[in-house]
Automatic annotation (TrEMBL):
Organism per entry: Klebsiella variicola
Name of the protein: Peptidase M23
Top-level taxonomic group: Bacteria
Length: 47
């Protein structure tokens, strides 16, 4: 049958219906900039 993708949403070790899952509101711009700054710091460890 070939390669396929298994998708599963688990929160606190419990399976969750991804169609009924309500995601949190997006972070504000200040928090987003903070997260990207930390991501760039850790990115150098991947090289």
């Amino acid at each position: 049958s070939g390669p396929h993708l298994h998708y599963e949403l688990v929160i606190n070790n419990n399976p969750v219906n991804s169609l009924a899952f309500r995601a949190a509101a997006p972070a504000d711009n200040k928090l987003e900039q903070h997260a990207f700054a930390h991501a760039r710091d850790y990115e150098r460890y991947l090289d």
